[in-house]
Write a structure and sequence with these properties.
Elements lengths: L1 E5 L2 H18 L4 E4 L6 H12 L9 E4 L1 E3 L10 H8 L11 E2 L8 H14 L5 E4 L21 E4 L2 H7 L12 E4 L2 H5 L3 E6 L5 H9 L17 E6 L7
Parallel strand pairs: 1-10, 2-3, 2-6, 3-5, 6-9, 9-10
Antiparallel strand pairs: 4-8, 7-8
Helix pairs in contact: 1-2
The chain binds 2-amino-2-deoxy-6-O-phosphono-alpha-D-glucopyranose (GLP).
2-amino-2-deoxy-6-O-phosphono-alpha-D-glucopyranose binds next to α5.
Length: 241
């Protein structure tokens, strides 16, 4: 695990953007795993800027998002489809058919999960996975207690995640309680992982995942076992490390 300690959110975004761009340029058909939430927004802004400046292209890239709420239509402002389109996809030249987000409106959710997992495998696997982290140490929507070898599945959101994400909805009761999420096993298969963290609300989780024991109670603690993980986190997020 390499840890890059940066001053603030801006620097976290720039540093991750630099690595992303390097992989985008050096891999012929790069496959990226993408995250949502407030943490990677700066990374997407940076990538869009570089695309608009003519420095990079996503024509040969494929992306797989980590997760999506169940029951939110794609045009719902809080769906991850909407987030990705608004903040990233519609500004760049990625081919629509290569930008994957799980379909939380699928009639057969289990078939959707199996197909998503299969698509990732058929793409040759994820070259670089971007991760944020939940306050309770979750990655994607894999809550404490999720199996380390899990595949893409329908998952229930924990009380803590519902509360943390309620800020994006009118109230707590509007937050969907289920999601489709890549499994921890799926995430661990990525060749390289960058975990981003910013702000004091992540400090306890960061301490646990860097120094704590590897346990399913802290989903991200398994990253200690991955052979190519870089944590890019700011002073506040690392204040307990
Ligand atoms: C959500 C997402 C995660 C994300 C986490 C942290 O629950 N499913 O992928 O990492 O929130 O979000 P934020 O970056 O807004 O703190």
């Amino acid at each position: 695990m390499e840890i890059i300690r940066v001053e603030n959110y801006e620097e976290m975004s720039t540093r991750s953007c630099e690595i992303f761009v390097k992989r985008l340029k050096s891999i012929e058909f790069p496959v990226f795993g993408l995250a949502t939430g407030s943490t990677p927004m700066g990374l997407y802004r940076c990538l869009v800027k570089k695309f608009q400046a003519g420095e990079i292209s996503f024509k040969y890239a494929t992306t797989f998002n980590l997760d999506e709420y169940i029951g939110l239509p794609k045009d719902h402002e809080q769906s991850y489809h909407y987030y990705m389109n608004e903040l990233f996809f519609r500004h760049i030249d990625i081919l629509k058919e290569n930008a994957h987000v799980p379909n939380g409106m699928a009639e057969d959710l289990h078939a959707e999960c199996e197909q998503y997992e299969r698509l990732i495998e058929e793409s040759g696997g994820i070259d670089l996975q971007i991760l944020g982290i939940g306050e309770n140490g979750h990655i994607a929507f894999n809550e404490p207690g999720s199996p380390f070898n899990g595949k893409t599945a329908v998952v229930n959101l924990s009380e803590s995640t519902l509360k943390a994400n309620a800020r994006f909805f009118k109230n707590l009761y509007e937050v969907p309680t289920r999601a489709i999420s890549m499994g921890i096993g799926t995430i661990m298969k990525a060749k390289e992982i960058i975990l981003l963290a910013s702000g004091g609300t992540k400090a306890v989780a960061m301490k646990k995942i860097i120094h704590g024991e590897i346990t399913e109670d802290v989903p991200a603690s398994i990253l200690q076992k991955h052979k190519h993980v870089t944590i890019i986190a700011d002073e506040a997020a690392l204040s307990k490390v």
